[in-house]
Prior knowledge:
By secondary structure, the chain is an alpha+beta fold.
Amino acid sequence: MNLGEAFRTALGEIRAHKLRSTLTLLGIILGTLSIVVMTSFLDGIVVAVWRGFADLGYDGVVYVVNREARDLREGALFTRSEGLQPRDVPILLARRELVTSAAPTVFDEEIVRRGSVERKARIQGVTAEYARVRDRSLAAGRFVSDSDERSFARVCVIGHRMRSRLFGSEDPLGKPVYVAGRPFTVIGVGRKLGNNFVNDDEFIEEMEGMYVPLSTLRKFYTGEDSPVSFIAVKTDRPEKLGALESEVVASLKIAHRGVQDFRVQNIAQEIVRARARVTDLIRNWKIVTGTIAGISLLVGGIGLMSVMLISIGERLYEIGLRKAIGASDAEVFAQFLLEAVILSLAGGVLGAAAGVAITKSAAGFFPAGLPIHLGGLATALAIAVLLGVLYGIYPALKASRMMPVDALRSAG
C-alpha cells in the first residue's frame, strides 16, 4: 500500500465513522489548539510586558533625591550645602567611569489653559538629556534642546492626554498654551505610555502634564536657586548598578563639601528584580499551560489507539485477505501505522487551524497584537505526528502479526 492509498483509507475511515473519529481526535485537536494559542498568547503578553517596562525608562537609571536632616547635628551640617543643583551634573559626568548621562529635574504644578479649557497639571522642568536618560521618544515635534535651556525659551512638550484635552484632534505644534498666565509654544507631543500589563501613576502624571526647559521653570516659577527635585543618572553598564551608586555618592559628597544631604534610589535594581519576577511568572504560566496541553494530547493519543484497535477488529477480513495474497507483516504494519499518523495529523491540522483563528480574533485586545508563533505551529504538528507513531505502533503490530487463516475465520 502506498502513501496515497493509506491516505485515502484513513480519510475513508474518518468519513465512515464521523462521530467516532471526531470524538477520538478531540483530544489531539484540543492539545494542538492549546499549544498554538498558548504560545501566541504568551508571546503577545511577553511583548506587551517588556514594552511596558521599556516605557518606564528606568533601565540602568538611579535617582538622586534630596534628604532631610535626621538630627540637629546634620541640620547644622546641611546648611553648608545648597542641596541638589544643576551644577552637580558636570561633576557627576567628570569621572566618566560608569555615569554616561545625568538629567536634573524640577517638578511644579500650575494651571495650564488653552482658550476656555484649563487644567491643573504637573510641569516638569528638564534638560535635553532627560529624553536620553529616560528613553523618551515623541509622537510629534521635538524635545527640549540645549538652545531652549540657554535662552530660557517658553516652549513646552505636552503629554499624550494633555494634547487630547486641550487640542482634541487639532495639530498642537506651534500653537500657544498658557502656564499660570504665561504663554508657551508647543514644540512636541509625547506618546502614549504603558499598557494594560504595565501601568502606574507616573505614566498618568506624565501623559497629563508637560515638559518645559529646566532653566525656564526655575526662572519664572520655582526660583533659580531652589534645589532640583531629583537628578536621574544613567549608565550603559546596568550589570554594575552597585558600583554606579557608589560612584554617584562619592562624586556628590565632594560637590557638597562632604555633606551627604542626598540619597540614591536604585530604581534600576528594582526593575531588574521586577523583570526576574515576571520572567519566573511567565515560565510558570508556560509550565501550567503546557501541562494542560500535554494531558489533552495524552488523552487524544489513547483515543487514537482505541479507534485503531476498533478499526482492526472491523477489518479482519481485509487483513486476512491481504496477507493471504502475499502482503508481508511489514507492509501490514506500515499500512496501519501510516493510517494512525494520518489520523493524528488530521487532528493536529484542525487544532492548529482553530488555534490560529482564535489567536487572530483575540489579537485586537492586545496593544501589541498577537503574533502567530510559527515555532508553536510546527511544534503542535510535530507532536501530532509523534503521537500517531507512538500510539499507532501497538495496533499496527497487532494487525501485522495476525495469521491469514485466523483473521479470515474471525471475520466470519
